[in-house]
Structures are given as C-alpha cells and as structure tokens.
Specification:
The two termini are 41 Å apart. The protein is of the alpha/beta class. The protein has 3 domains: 8-260, TIM Barrel; 272-322, Antifreeze-like/N-acetylneuraminic acid synthase C-terminal domain (Type Iii Antifreeze Protein Isoform Hplc 12); 344-495, Jelly Rolls (Sandwich). It contains 15 helices and 23 strands.
Length: 498
C-alpha cells in the first residue's frame, strides 16, 4: 500500500476563506484545477477550532491579543466546514485538517477527515496529542520552533502509540527569511528517524520558489504552503500564494524531483557510457601476440580511441593477470578480450562492496575483527550463494555481523549446539525458519533455536547482527549434501586484515 504522505502537496487554506463558504469553495476549485493540470497527489487543509471553548471568555471581545480578532471574524460553522470538505473530495483531493483542541479532533472524525495535521504550536501539546492518538488517522506533525530533544519525544510518543505519522520541517516565521530555513536539518531528521516521511511546510514569500527546490533536494517528500484567492476586496497576506504562484511553486518542486531522481540508485544510461568510452584509452598490442598467450603489460600500450567492445586501460590495469588472448594479434591492433576477475580481485570486490554497505548503514566496526567469506558452492558462485561474516567476539557469548549482497542466498542449515538471534540492522531479508517464511524489516528480532533449520535471502542487500552462544567449529549441518560433505576450509575464506 502506497504511503499517503509520500509526494504529497498540501494547500493550507487557514483563514483565507475569509469566513465565506463561497470564497473557500472557489479556492478549493482553483487548487483542484491546478492539481489535475499538474497531475500531482495533493490535499487541501483546513483549521478547526472550537472557538466557544478555545478562546478564554474574558478575551473574546478584546482586540489587543494577536490572532483572536481574526479567528472570530472569519469563524465558520461545522456545517460550513463540512460543505467545503465535501468540495475537496469532489475535486479528487485529500482532506487534511489541523485541529487545535480536543473537540475539533472529534469533528475531524465526524467529517471523516483523511489526515490530521498538528501545527508547530501544538507539537508539544501532550493532551491534544493524546486525543489525536486515539482516532487512528494518519498524522503529520510540524516542528517549527521545536528543539531536537522535543522532536525525539514526539517521535517516541507516536511510535509507542503505533501511529502512522510524518514530520514537517518548518520555520514558524511569517514570512520566513531564507537565512532561517536550515534545510540541512531535513537530512538530519531523515537519518535520525529512518522510515519516517519528512516534509517541509513553508512560509516564505509567495514568489520565492527556491526553497521548494532546496527542500526537495534535501530529501523532503511532502510540501505545504498557504494558498488563497485575491479579489477586488481581498488581499493575501505576505506568505500566501495565489493560483499563479502556486503553479510556479509546484513546477519548481516537480523540476527538483526530476533532477534528484526517483530513488537513491544511480542510473547509468547508454548515452553516458558511450560518452565516456569516447574519452577512454583502449588497450593495443605493442607487438605480436599469439592466441593462448597470457597478455602482459609490456605486450601492450594504451591510446585513444577505445572502440566498442575493446579492453580499456582500467579493466586491463586492474585485472591484467587474467587476460588471455583468444586469437592472434598484430602490432598496433586493438585487443578485444574479456577479463574475468581472478580470486584476489573477486575477494577484494566483495570486501569493497560490503564496506560500502556497512558505511551506508552507519555501522562502526571495532578494530581486530576478522571476516570470513562463506562460499558454499565456491567463490565463483559467491554472489549467488554465501555471506560475508564479520567476527566481532566469540566467548561464552558470540557476536557477528552478517552482510548479504543483493540477491544473495544463504542455504538451509541448522546448528546442534548454538542458539542465535538475528537482528536486522539494514536492508531487507526473508528468513525461512523451519519451513516458515518470515519477511524481516529493519529492527526485527528473530530467535533461531538449536536444531532449527533456517536459510535467508535478500533482494536489495542486508546487514544483520547475529548474537548467539559460543560459535563452535563444525556445528553447522547443511541440508544439501554437496555443502555438508565439504571441509569448512573448502567453503570459507578467512581474512584478518581487511
């Protein structure tokens, strides 16, 4: 199921409806037209306040307290809000509401609002958060002016209450200056709260589209802005966008998303490969080379151009020991050869990739740890069957880190003396335990008791911690006799200095 928060644009109406259902409906229709034109996932957000109790009775008639006169002058009835909510739905948009009190949370439920948004001023209003946690709606929480230790508390609260939630980076200044935006904090939030959608709620001047680009570039997956509809009698405030400015804001964000890419993988096109090939040096014969000869550096020279399918200087320089001529070559001829990795380079490539995965997962390994490559069917099939194991400690208790490369499988086996627990730290893993398949997610723990048959595999790569009783040599029994009959030395390569 697709996350409702992902790639969501939120149009914040606030009090821009001016207390008129007709004007509010016109804003919704204008946003609906833009959404259909831009083909985006979007919602319209209202603010609910039960003003009879939200404002202290002694202050209702005073004009010297900020916001209160505007709230009262633009007040709408529950029936009025429901009419606008229905219009949002008729436009094919998501309904979003910021409730500022408990009674308004109940009204969100009554109006069947899809997403509840918590304003920055309410992010640490624990009685209100307690009420919101009971209604089982997706929740977005803005964090403007909220320090990091309080955001930690908010995240912990949401997790303990099993809420589906997202966070918004926000600057609670109206309008917000660029110097106060601190978009690198979005990156920190994404690392600190993995798996939580992080967005940006902006209050910058309406014609400034640069913050949208910067926010998306920093990793924001939701964007929110105040919108309105100016008329001959209505002037928008300094942080609300008219429809034309809203379109420009959306275009900037979509352009940034296109530039940043749809995922975190690097995609290399054929055009890029051809472009680099035109600049590479190819390997040429410096003298006659006979078929079957091992090609040595002194037999070759490097020069432009590098032809399609020709061995290039980088390939030969790294793997030259394994290049054997498949035919006779004359002096100055280009070498069209493939170069298979030798054992040393196979192992080095695996270690380099595993180190990269460990670094990406932000796992620090202490000094003195050795590694072993479990290659059940030989090193030539390691990327299909096997695992890289980091041996951290082995006493009465044992700790290992197990790294699985993408699409790697570890064959079915069991231990007669060792009991172990797997803790998935990073990536995805499917564990088959006594014929039961368990799809593990990050931070999942699974106990593997003595004698239990188990195997595991991954799609995109995985790192898990194995905590166990003492590791004992020859305690692993494999279901496949072809593996089980091998001496452990035949199916393991141990490296101390890696």
């Amino acid at each position: 199921m697709e996350n409702i928060f992902n790639d969501l644009f939120i149009f914040e109406m606030a009090n821009n409806h001016q207390g008129s259902v007709e004007h509010g409906t016109n804003i919704i229709k204008a946003m609906g037209e833009i959404v259909r034109k831009k083909k985006i996932h979007a919602g319209v957000k209202f603010q609910y306040r039960h003003l009879d109790t939200f404002i202290h009775p002694d202050y209702r008639k005073r004009s010297d307290v900020k916001h209160i006169p505007r709230f009262l002058s633009t007040q709408l009835s529950e029936k009025d809000f429901l009419a606008m909510v229905k219009e949002v739905r008729s436009q094919g948009l998501v309904t979003v509401v910021t409730p500022f009190d408990e009674a308004s949370v109940d009204l969100c439920v009554e109006h069947q609002i899809e997403i509840i948004k918590v304003a920055s001023c309410s992010a640490t209003d624990w009685p209100l958060l307690e009420k919101i946690s009971t209604v089982k709606r997706p929740v977005i929480i803005s964090t403007g002016g909220v320090p990091l230790d309080q955001i930690d508390r908010i995240v912990s609260f949401c997790e303990h209450h099993q809420m589906q939630f997202a966070l918004m980076h926000c600057v609670a200044l109206y309008p917000a200056p660029e110097s106060a935006m601190h978009f690198n904090f979005i990156k920190r939030m994404k690392k600190r709260y993995p798996g939580v959608i992080i967005g940006y709620s902006g209050h910058e001047e309406p014609d400034n589209t640069l913050p949208a680009i910067a926010a998306v570039s920093a990793g924001a997956q939701m964007l929110e802005r105040h919108v309105g509809l100016p008329t001959s009698t209505i002037t928008l405030n300094k942080y609300s966008m008219n429809p034309k400015e809203t379109e420009a804001w959306i275009d900037s964000a979509l352009h940034a998303r296109e530039i940043c890419g749809t995922g975190e993988m690097k995609e290399i096109s054929r055009d890029e490969i051809d472009s680099l090939l035109s600049l590479k040096r190819g390997v040429y014969a410096a003298k006659k080379i006979k078929k079957g000869d091992r090609v040595k550096p002194e037999d070759t020279f490097y020069a432009m151009p590098c032809l399609d399918g020709q061995l290039d200087s980088g390939q030969f320089g790294q793997q030259r020991a394994t290049v054997v001529a498949s035919r006779d070559y004359k002096t100055n001829e280009p070498l069209f050869e493939t170069s298979a990795l030798d054992t040393i380079h196979e192992i080095r490539d695996v270690i380099h990739e595993a180190k990269g995965m460990i670094n990406e997962a932000c796992i620090v390994i202490g000094k003195g740890s050795s590694i072993e490559l479990s290659h059940h069917y030989g090193l030539q099939d390691f990327r299909k069957f096997g695992a890289l194991i980091v041996n951290v400690i082995n006493r009465e208790y044992c700790k290992k880190l197990v790294v699985l490369l993408p699409n790697q499988n570890h064959p079915n086996h069991r231990h007669h003396k060792k009991e172990e627990t797997f803790h998935l730290l990073w990536g995805d893993m499917a564990l088959t335990l006594n014929d039961q398949k368990i799809m593990m997610e990050r931070n999942d723990l699974v106990l593997v008791e003595r004698g239990a048959w188990h195997s595991f595999t991954t799609r995109s790569g995985a790192i898990f911690e194995e905590v166990s009783t003492t590791h004992i040599l020859n305690d692993s029994e494999y279901e496949d006799p072809a593996i089980d009959s091998k001496d452990p030395i035949e199916r393991k390569t141990v490296i101390d200095n890696w």
